[in-house]
């Protein structure tokens, strides 16, 4: 819920938004220079909403001039309106709208283990809200929950506060890790489910007004609450299904000589199919897809629809098959033995541009490879702190099992002396194709205006549509300016206030210093995250690898023809190689 709260506050300066959590460390990090999660652009939004913004003047036309005392456009000073606190009861009691955004993982034991949703945290928070929420408050389900959870919420509220009226809404998130901020700023749709009563519709309209501050009204959909709850599960399940479908075809391609990328391109031009989610790989990860598919499986099974449940269960089975098949392919190509060999895993997060490692395929791959007793498994991820990754692997697999796992702060040390490099995440940094340089846009050429559409950061968004620029306008200009050649300032609009100082013994500052000393930095909260990522020097990597040099491309980011020139053998998902 942190990114959602940040964007809601960012877009509604007149609304006070408070994120509450009992986790003292998490709240401390939200109130510091070290947010607990990494998403491109998130830190800049948090800074404006949490710390406020300075009054500034900007040139209102496309220009090399950024900030000027005689600027044509004045940007008013902004007060802080985003707060983070551990006073859960106090802030719930004063809220008009309470959004419940807690973890709802898959149950690990008991009835429904392995498919049902574990509602422990959600139920506990609902009970807490029931005790302290003011009469008439609107309770909003943000967590992904089973269909008909709103009835559980209603029953809990009635039990704790009989006779007190609350309205319950469903407002699921449709975000993707790595692009969560853009997904919130420029959503395809906002879904609000409510009771079909006058008071339910008024509650939905109240929440709709919050989003209408920046989302075109035609993109805000209203349904009954059950449809909204189920739509979230179905959306994620359908996306997961497409990934498993193309991964099943990749196995056929490897046996027939067809190229899965060519097949995907051929079917993707059909408008009935489309080209989204047709990139073959080693399977999906993250906290949502598997959990939500299994939630749908459990729902079908418990409602006497076993055929429906089995249909969706195959989506998860195919996902695991894709990951395990590729891992076994690595072992087979290395003569079925890893003894005495070093294997490098590039990418530990489940997808690019995020530090989220939940359900990441890389962890299960490491677990399988360790059974072959390699000399070393090296890990590098450009968005994950190596100390955090090392501790996570140790906690999940055990300290003795992972003694041969080493996490590095840079890719070159990780790949040195490796017999095989396995690409487990599709980071642009890992690609070996040259970066295409787009032609620079003329300075005086304004960007085309498309309401609610993501702007092109390479095009100057000025002149703005309105005399007073919106927060999206200012953010688009910020992104455009920090990407300019020679731009070194992280605040070209001169709008940021100074961030709060950390204590001398701040563990995050200490960890950041240690990471920097080891050659690791994410660029979080800096202009660097908006600039094109520097590609790895594969010539340098190939020179230091041990023969026979193998690259196993699990994400389709490598041009095998270029690697062959370096004397490196390549195995890729969904295609045969004869190198």
TrEMBL record:
Q: Which UniProt keywords apply?
A: NAD, Oxidoreductase
The protein's name:
UDP-glucose 6-dehydrogenase
| Assigned EC number | 1.1.1.22
Does the keyword section mention Manganese? Answer: no
Instruction: Extract one GO molecular function annotation from the record.
Output: NAD binding
Signal sequence bounds: none
Q: In which pathway does it act?
A: Nucleotide-sugar biosynthesis; UDP-alpha-D-glucuronate biosynthesis; UDP-alpha-D-glucuronate from UDP-alpha-D-glucose: step 1/1
- Can you give the residue ranges of the UDP-glucose/GDP-mannose dehydrogenase C-terminal domain? 344-438
Tell me the segments the record calls region Disordered.
433-469
User: Which GO CC terms are listed, alphabetically?
Assistant: nucleus
What is catalysed by this protein?
UDP-alpha-D-glucose + 2 NAD(+) + H2O = UDP-alpha-D-glucuronate + 2 NADH + 3 H(+)
Record-annotated residues binding NAD(+)? Answer: 104, 144, 291, 358
What Pfam families does the record point to? UDPG_MGDP_dh, UDPG_MGDP_dh_C, UDPG_MGDP_dh_N
Residues annotated to bind substrate: 232, 277-281, 285, 351
| Active-site residue numbers | 288
């Amino acid at each position: 819920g942190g990114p959602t709260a940040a964007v809601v506050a960012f877009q509604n300066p007149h609304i006070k938004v408070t994120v509450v959590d009992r986790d003292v460390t998490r709240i401390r990090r939200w109130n510091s220079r070290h947010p607990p999660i990494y998403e491109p652009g998130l830190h800049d939004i948090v800074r404006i909403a949490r710390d406020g913004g300075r009054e500034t003047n900007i040139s209102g036309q496309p220009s090399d001039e950024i900030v000027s005392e005689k600027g044509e456009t004045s940007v008013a000073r902004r007060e802080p309106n985003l707060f983070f606190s551990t006073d859960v009861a106090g802030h719930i009691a004063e809220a008009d709208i309470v959004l419940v955004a807690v973890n709802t993982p898959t149950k690990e034991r008991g009835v429904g283990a392995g498919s049902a949703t574990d509602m422990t945290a959600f139920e506990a928070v609902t009970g807490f809200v029931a005790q302290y929420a003011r009469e008439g408050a609107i309770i909003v389900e943000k967590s992904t929950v089973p269909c008909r959870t709103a009835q559980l919420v209603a029953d809990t509220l009635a039990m704790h506060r009989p006779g007190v009226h609350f309205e319950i809404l469903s407002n699921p998130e449709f975000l993707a890790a790595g692009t969560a901020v853009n997904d919130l700023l420029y959503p395809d749709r906002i879904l609000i489910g409510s009771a079909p009563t006058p008071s339910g519709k008024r509650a939905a309209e109240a929440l709709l007004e919050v989003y209408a501050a920046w989302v075109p009204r035609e993109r805000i959909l209203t349904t009954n609450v059950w449809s909204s709850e189920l739509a979230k599960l179905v959306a994620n399940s359908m996306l997961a299904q497409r990934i498993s479908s193309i991964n099943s075809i990749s196995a056929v391609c490897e046996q027939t000589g067809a190229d899965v990328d060519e097949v995907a391109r051929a079917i993707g031009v059909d408008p009935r199919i489309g080209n989204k989610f047709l990139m073959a790989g080693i399977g999906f990860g993250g906290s949502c897809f598997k959990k939500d598919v299994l939630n749908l499986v459990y729902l079908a099974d418990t409602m006497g629809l076993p055929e429906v449940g089995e249909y969706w269960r195959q989506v998860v089975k195919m996902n695991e098959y894709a990951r395990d098949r590729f891992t076994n392919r690595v072992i087979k190509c290395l003569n079925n033995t890893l003894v005495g060999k070093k294997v490098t895993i590039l990418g530990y997060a489940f997808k690019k541009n995020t530090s989220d490692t939940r359900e990441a395929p890389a962890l299960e791959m490491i677990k399988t490879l360790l059974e072959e007793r390699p000399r070393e498994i090296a890990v590098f991820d450009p968005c994950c702190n190596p100390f955090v990754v090392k501790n996570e692997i140790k906690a999940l697999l055990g300290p003795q099992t992972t003694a041969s796992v080493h996490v590095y702060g840079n890719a070159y040390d990780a790949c040195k002396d490796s017999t095989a490099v396995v690409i487990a995440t599709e980071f642009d940094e890992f690609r070996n194709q040259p970066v295409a340089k787009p032609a620079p846009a003329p300075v005086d050429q304004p960007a085309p205006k498309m309401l609610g559409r993501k702007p092109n950061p390479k095009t100057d968004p000025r002149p703005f549509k309105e005399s007073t620029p919106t927060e999206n306008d200012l953010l688009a200009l910020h992104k455009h300016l920090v990407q300019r050649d020679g731009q070194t300032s992280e605040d070209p609009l001169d709008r940021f206030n100074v961030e709060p100082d950390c204590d001398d013994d701040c563990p995050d500052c200490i960890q950041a210093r240690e990471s920097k000393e080891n050659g690791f930095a994410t660029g979080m909260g800096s202009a660097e995250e908006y600039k094109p990522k520097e590609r790895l020097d594969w010539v340098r990597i190939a020179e230091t690898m041990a023969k026979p040099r193998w690259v196993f491309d699990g994400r389709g980011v490598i041009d095998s023809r270029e690697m062959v020139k370096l004397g490196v053998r390549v195995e890729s998902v969904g295609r045969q190689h004869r190198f």
